[in-house]
Specification:
With about 80 residues, the chain is mainly alpha-helical. It is elongated and about 50 Å long. It is built from three helices and two strands; from the N terminus they run H-H-H-E-E. The protein folds into two domains: about 30 residues, no CATH class; about 40 residues, no CATH class. A two-stranded antiparallel ribbon has the order 1-2. It is about 55% helix and about 5% strand.
């Protein structure tokens, strides 16, 4: 599927149409699953530092469980629906 998508993006008429819609077509070397996996790990690490610093400044901490209520102010009591 990745190869088919990459081939499609290299088609000049498709590329022109997508760029006309405001899309930026990345070079073929940046379209592989391996590149995406490495990129995501780098972004998670980079942005995670900023997010953790902001949470610390606001007095938030992460609970062990994840989910929509995984952050709470320090000293707050968690209320969990049953």
């Amino acid at each position: 599927m990745n190869r088919a998508m990459s081939d499609m993006l290299d088609n000049p008429s498709v590329r022109k149409r997508l760029e006309g819609l405001g899309l930026e077509i990345v070079p073929s070397e940046r379209r592989s699953p391996e590149y995406l996996a490495a990129f995501l790990l780098e972004e998670i690490e980079r942005r995670g530092k900023v997010i953790r610093a902001a949470q610390h400044q606001r007095g938030l901490r992460r609970r062990r469980k994840t989910g929509p209520n995984s952050l709470k102010p320090l000293g707050a009591t968690a209320v969990c629906p049953r």
